[in-house]
Each structure stands twice: as structure tokens, then as C-alpha cells.
Design a protein that fits this description.
Strand order of the largest sheet: 3-2-1-4-5-6
Structural class: alpha/beta
Shape: elongated
Largest sheet: 6 strands, mixed
CATH topology of the largest domain: Endonuclease, Chain A
Length: about 300
């Protein structure tokens, strides 16, 4: 029977990682470990699925971190994979229990599209968030009034209560930038974002002032790609790249569309966007120039 190679290290390191990670990252971590154990044991997805009275597709979802975990399934798989040590088994079963904990946004599922819930989990678990925006201030840096005006435009058929719940979600998301473990946020904004008026003049002024305050924080970098730079990335809309503290988790590129989103995880797909973000940082004005530009735009309102 195979041994649980690397499981002792996992049990030792998960103590700190699991406390700081949310359910999405924990599911991915657990799924990756189950895949490695299965492959080390020379067991196919079909056989593993049959062993837990299910199918190879469920094993694929589990290993990809795309579903919750039944403790009985995890326990049965660990036995099948030859993981019999009590400490090793308990480390993974504890991880499964934590991964199944409901997230705060479950209370808002009535106003959240299914495809966006995955992003909320990834954003919650990321250590570094890099984003490029071409039309609106990123949600993590929006004021309540600015967010409310955007939702009123984009969800005109919603009730006032639904719009307020959407605003609540956006404000709740922003806690990832706060202590005790503030994420690093690097934003590159097209100049059009700052000149595109959302709501009234007062709302826009408040948003620009808020952006200036946030840009002054040590964990937040805001650069602006000015009209005058003479460089543009054609055909690319908003892009977010999420990086995680756990070495087992690779960068994820998030591309939001009108009725859905793409999540890119393969290195060959992610690399071009990483290069693009690096290029944007080079061509955009330095972060040190952002406060003066914001003051100038505020004065023009």
C-alpha cells in the first residue's frame, strides 16, 4: 500500500494556512492533495468514484475544489489511497470540515449570480489582487454611493431592497483590505475610469477623494494609464489576477462578462495576462503621481 508521502508536512503547515484561508482555497488544497494521493496509489478516477458509490466526474470535481466534501467520502478515499496514520487522516478530515463551512455571502445568494460566488471565494482567499479597469473604479475601492449608482444603472428592474443588498455585498468584500491580514491590492486604471462620471458630481467627488485615501495605504497601489501615454492593450476589458499564499495554489485570472465569467488557471493561459499586467504597470504613470492627478480631477468637478 502507498504511504502518505508529504502528509506529515501538510498536517504541520495546515495549522496556520487553514486558519487564514477561506473555504474556496481550502477546497482547492484538499482536492489537490487527494489527487496526488490517488495518483501515487495508481488508482483511476473511475475506480475511486466507484469506491465512494459515485462517478469519475465527482472525483474530478472534488480534486478541482469545485464541490463540497462529504466526510464519509474523504475518509473512504483515504483508506483506499493507503492513508492509515491517525494524524495524517485527521489533518485532511479537519481540512474537509473547514472547507465545508458556509461563507458570509451565502446570505446574499438572492442577489448574486452563481458564477460570481466562485470569485468571491477566490478574492477572500487571495494574498495579492492585481486588477486593470477600463470603465469603473474597482469594487474593492468604491464608495457606497458610487456602488449604488452603478447598480441602479445596471439593475434598473431591481427593487430598492435588492440594490441595497448588492451594495452591502460590495462593502463587505472590502474587508479583505483591512487588518488583521490586509491583502495587497495593485490597481491600474485607465484615465477614462476617473473621467467617467457615475451619478452626481457629489458622488464622483466623494469617490475620487476616497480613492486618494485608499491609495495612500501601504497595502494598496493605484496607477493610472493616461490618455497621453500612447500605449494601449487592444481588445482587453477588465482583468483581475489573484495570487495565493499557499504554494499549492496557482494564480487565477478572472475575466468578467455581461452574463458570466471566465476563470483561467492553466499556466499557458495565465502567463499572457501576467505579462500584460506587468506591461500596464510599466506604461502607466507611477503610483507617486496618482494623488496629484486625483486632486486635479477633483478640482475640475
Amino acid at each position: 500500500m502507498p504511504t502518505a508521502h508529504g502528509m506529515g508536512d501538510l498536517a504541520e503547515t495546515l495549522g496556520s494556512d487553514a486558519v487564514q484561508s477561506g473555504p474556496t482555497a481550502l477546497r482547492i488544497l484538499l482536492g489537490a492533495q487527494l489527487r496526488r494521493l490517488r495518483e501515487s496509489a495508481g488508482i483511476s478516477r473511475e475506480d475511486a468514484g466507484y469506491h465512494i458509490r459515485s462517478s469519475h466526474s465527482k472525483i474530478s470535481r472534488m480534486e478541482g475544489g469545485r464541490t463540497s466534501f462529504k466526510l464519509r467520502d474523504v475518509s473512504d478515499l483515504l483508506i483506499m489511497y493507503g492513508v492509515t496514520g491517525e494524524a495524517e487522516r485527521e489533518a485532511l478530515l479537519a481540512l474537509a470540515r473547514q472547507a465545508n463551512e458556509p461563507s458570509w455571502w451565502h446570505d446574499y445568494r438572492d442577489v448574486l449570480p452563481d458564477w460570481f460566488e466562485a470569485y468571491l471565494g477566490l478574492e477572500q482567499d487571495a494574498s495579492v489582487i492585481r486588477t486593470h479597469e477600463v470603465q469603473f473604479v474597482p469594487g474593492l475601492l468604491q464608495t457606497e454611493d458610487y456602488a449604488r449608482a452603478i447598480f441602479a444603472m445596471g439593475h434598473g428592474s431591481d427593487s430598492d431592497e435588492q440594490i441595497e443588498r448588492r451594495v452591502e455585498v460590495r462593502m463587505r468584500r472590502q474587508r479583505v483590505l483591512e487588518p488583521p491580514a490586509p491583502r495587497k491590492l495593485w490597481v491600474v486604471l485607465d484615465e477614462a475610469v476617473l473621467r467617467h462620471r457615475v451619478g452626481s458630481r457629489e458622488i464622483m467627488r466623494g469617490q475620487l477623494e476616497h480613492l486618494a485615501r485608499m491609495a495612500a495605504r501601504p497595502n494598496i497601489t493605484v496607477q493610472v494609464l493616461p490618455f497621453s501615454c500612447g500605449w494601449a492593450m487592444g481588445g482587453v476589458g477588465p482583468v483581475t489576477i489573484l495570487r495565493f499564499a499557499q504554494s499549492e495554489l496557482h494564480d487565477v485570472v478572472y475575466l468578467e462578462q455581461l452574463t458570466g465569467a471566465q476563470y483561467l488557471t492553466k499556466e499557458t493561459d495565465v502567463l499572457p495576462y501576467q505579462r500584460m499586467m506587468d506591461e500596464l504597470g510599466v506604461h502607466a504613470s507611477p503610483a507617486s503621481a496618482t494623488p496629484a492627478m486625483l486632486r486635479r480631477l477633483i478640482g475640475e468637478l
